[in-house]
């Protein structure tokens, strides 16, 4: 309330002051024209002074609304020319204070009206009529103020709600961006990790066996060239999706497991595949099973190069989809806390399945179970 008065405030306060002055002058003129001055005569002079003070006090209504209203209500017990200023003060309290405070001040104003009709009765108007007219004017001022008060509260509530909704929408957008970045990171890891692991294995073989037979060198070089080309293609696809306004990352299906195993075999990893899937599983389950096999083959080449790998993929509607990958240690055990396995566990969990991995009986086992409704 106690703030710098703006242009709109000056206009409103000027209008309120003008209303109070005109209201007082109108009542004063009616008294003079009707030659109905109060007795004793000096009371009319006091009334005019109080009316002038009340009109001037209207300019203080923003700083002390309740105090001003109470003061004008008390003055109204003997002065009728402060009525205009009192109505403005009642309206101000109703607008800027809680309804309980407004009704308390209104009740005090009604009591002041009762005192006024007793102290200064109008010989031409019954007391009941005078009290009813005054109470009606005060009730109209307070009612209008309460309407403005509740309307302002409603606007503030809607504004706060809109602000919260905007903030929540921004948070959801940021979360969606984070989820998209995580999904892209997983795809890049899964897609390029498989290709680069093949490159690493055969490049390492050429480095440590420079005296290898020519046919082995040619085969390794062919694998390196082929997978480097495929890695570039995969990278172009991912970047193309990122640049496109709308699109999805290219996703594999369960049928691509056979192609994945064939690539590993051509790269020199002995892989035995047992594929027994009855029907077409849900896209999410099939894609996740493919990623499980892909990650397991990548880790097998990295931590147990040259060792045989067994891949078992089976499932049917109602029984679920299962992917199991086994390989020998070859003297080294894969780290259980690798980011690839952690991401794999997150991927399987998002698909509603379960995954287990770890050493056992001289081999490394990865087993994923995914839901496949009937």
TrEMBL record:
SUPFAM superfamilies: ATPase domain of HSP90 chaperone/DNA topoisomerase II/histidine kinase (SSF55874). One of its GO terms (molecular function) is phosphorelay sensor kinase activity. Keywords: ATP-binding, Kinase, Membrane, Nucleotide-binding, Phosphoprotein, Transferase, Transmembrane, Transmembrane helix, Two-component regulatory system. GO terms for cellular component: membrane. Gene3D superfamilies: 1.20.5.1930, Histidine kinase-like ATPase, C-terminal domain. It catalyses: ATP + protein L-histidine = ADP + protein N-phospho-L-histidine. Residues 181-245 form the Signal transduction histidine kinase subgroup 3 dimerisation and phosphoacceptor domain. The chain crosses the membrane at residues 12-32, 68-94, 101-119, 131-149. This is histidine kinase. It comes from the Bacteria. It comes from Phytomonospora endophytica. Residues 7-152 form the DUF7134 domain. The keyword Metal-binding does not apply.
């Amino acid at each position: 309330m106690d703030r710098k008065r703006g242009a709109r405030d000056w206009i409103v306060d000027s209008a309120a002051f003008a209303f109070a002055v005109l209201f007082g002058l109108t009542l004063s003129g009616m008294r003079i024209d009707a030659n109905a001055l109060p007795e004793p005569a000096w009371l009319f002079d006091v009334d005019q002074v109080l009316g002038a003070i009340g009109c001037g006090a209207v300019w203080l209504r923003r700083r002390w609304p309740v105090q001003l209203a109470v003061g004008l209500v008390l003055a109204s017990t003997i002065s009728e020319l402060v009525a205009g200023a009192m109505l403005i003060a009642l309206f101000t309290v109703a607008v800027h204070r809680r309804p309980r405070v407004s009704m308390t001040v209104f009740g005090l104003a009604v009591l002041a009206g009762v005192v006024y009709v007793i102290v200064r009765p109008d010989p031409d108007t019954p007391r009941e009529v005078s009290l009813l007219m005054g109470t009606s004017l005060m009730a109209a001022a307070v009612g209008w103020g309460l309407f403005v008060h509740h309307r302002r509260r409603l606007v503030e509530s809607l504004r706060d709600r809109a602000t919260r909704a905007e903030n929540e929408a921004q948070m959801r957008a940021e979360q969606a961006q984070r989820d998209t970045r995580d999904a892209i990171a997983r795809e890049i890891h899964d897609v390029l990790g498989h290709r680069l692991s093949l490159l690493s294995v055969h490049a390492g073989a050429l480095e440590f066996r420079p005296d290898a037979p020519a046919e082995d060198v040619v085969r390794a070089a062919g694998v390196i060239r082929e997978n480097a080309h495929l890695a570039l293609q995969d990278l172009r696809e991912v970047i193309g999706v990122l640049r496109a306004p709308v699109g999805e990352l290219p996703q594999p299906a369960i049928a691509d497991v056979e192609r994945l195993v064939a690539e590993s075999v051509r790269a020199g990893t002995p892989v035995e595949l047992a594929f027994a899937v009855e029907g077409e599983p849900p896209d999410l389950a099939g894609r996740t099973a493919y990623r499980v096999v892909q990650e397991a083959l990548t880790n097998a080449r990295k931590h147990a190069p040259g060792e045989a790998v067994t891949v078992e993929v089976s499932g049917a509607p109602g029984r679920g989809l299962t992917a199991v990958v086994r390989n020998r240690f070859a003297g080294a055990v894969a780290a259980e806390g690798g980011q690839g396995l952690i991401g794999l566990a997150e991927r399987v969990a998002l698909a509603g399945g379960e995954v287990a991995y770890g050493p056992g009986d001289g081999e490394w086992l990865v087993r994923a179970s995914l839901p496949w409704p009937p």
